[in-house]
Every structure is written in C-alpha cells, then in structure tokens.
C-alpha cells in the first residue's frame, strides 16, 4: 500500500511539472484559420482546449516547411498545427514524424478552376488528364498525393495559396487544390486575388473534408501533451464531430488542414 501511495503521489506531482512552462507550438500564416501574428480561430480553439487542463501555450508563425522542421527536430517546440492527418508521418501507424491529436476543427478541400474551364471530375482517374496546382509541402489528399508522387497526375508547385490562385488565373494549370474557406478569405482580403476571383469558381465536388490536428513531437513529452489535449477535446463546448480520416484510420467519434 505504501508503494502504491508513493507511485500515485509521484505521478500526480510529476505530471504538472512537465508543463510548468507554456508549451510552444509552431504554425503558419493560413487565414482565416491562423493570422500573421499567430492568432485566429484555430489558435483560439487550441488555446481553449489546453486551458481546460490548466496548460498555457505559446504560438509562433513560420513558413510551413520550417514550422514542420522545428516541431520535429527542435525540442524547444512540442508540435505544429493545423495539420491534416497522414498515415505516412503518423508515428503510431509506422511513420516517424509525429503523434497526431484528435481533430479540433475541419477543412473543406476541393478544386478551384477557371470559370467555364474544361476541368471536371467525378473520380480520381479523371484527374490524370489535367495539370493540378498544389502548394509545396502541403498534404492534399492521400490518393491524389500518391498519384502525383507516381507521376500519374501532373502537378504544378506553388509556395503558397495566393500564388497558386494567381497562377491558375493566368492558366498555368487546369485547377488547384485549396481549402474553400481559404479561397473565400483571400477573395475578401487580397487585392491581387480579388482582381481575378470572378474568373474562377470552386468545383462543387469536394476532394476531402480534413480534420485539423496538432502534430506533436514523437517523444514521451509529446505523447503526454497529445494525450492531455485529446482528453480535453470532449469537454469543449460546441464541439462538432470529427470527420472520419480519409484512410479509415483513427477515432471517427471524437481531420483535416491538412
């Protein structure tokens, strides 16, 4: 009994000490989800969920590939968000990069195309006849990404969503992959995008609805932070169900973006 009490006491004491300092998370400027200063709806949700466990967070914006690298390799950062689920980088599914949280939001991803353009699709095989614009380093959707990697679909790379849209407007590609809310936001905020927006339209068939997640470092500390975050998701008011991951793995009853 004395041994058991000692174990319980040690556990209760040591767990809070692990997060006595704010947890540091990297992110990107990805409006409307995350603004240039690191604030925004996604950051608010992540902060609120951690606050339910009495944990504070610090968030800093980087270019996306650097945000990923820091979260993976620099122990000063415990994770990166918002990220779409990918089995290839899921350390619990044979990958090595990170430990995924449950979804805290959703991202509707589809194709933006020129108005009255020839692009149309009903299944992935239709995409082989087109040049598809994607943002470098983004996860798009499992099957499409595999087809691009296998050179079954021709991809045109851009550095960000705004560049991707402008290249589409100048007919550098037949369609681009983009989150619908991101396009709607850029239409209202970017002068350059606003100038070409009326010549473009969002295809009615979505490619995927991703869950938005935190990708925690693959370590004991990262796992502790992930488990703490996941445990509080169900306690958040106005929580919406998590979309089923596109490859069928994960916890569908609690995504997505990324």
Describe this structure in words.
There is one protein chain. By secondary structure, the chain is an alpha/beta fold. The protein is 33% helix and 22% strand. The chain has 8 helices and 10 strands. It has helices at 2-18, 41-51, 64-73, 142-149, 161-169, 180-189, 191-197, 220-233; strands spanning 23-27, 57-61, 79-83, 98-100, 105-114, 131-135, 154-158, 175-179, 200-202, 208-217. Strands 1, 2, 3, 4, 5, 6, 7, 8, 9 and 10 form a 10-stranded mixed beta sheet that branches. β6, α4 and β7 (154-158) form a beta-alpha-beta unit. It is globular and about 55 Å long. The termini are far apart. Residues 3-17 and 241-258 have low confidence and may be disordered. This is Amino acid ABC transporter substrate-binding protein, PAAT family. Residues 234-258 are annotated as: Disordered.
Question: How would you summarize this macromolecular structure in one to three sentences?
Answer:
The chain is α/β, with parallel strands linked by helices. It has helices at residues 2-18, 41-51, 64-73, 142-149, 161-169, 180-189, 191-197, 220-233; strands spanning 23-27, 57-61, 79-83, 98-100, 105-114, 131-135, 154-158, 175-179, 200-202, 208-217.
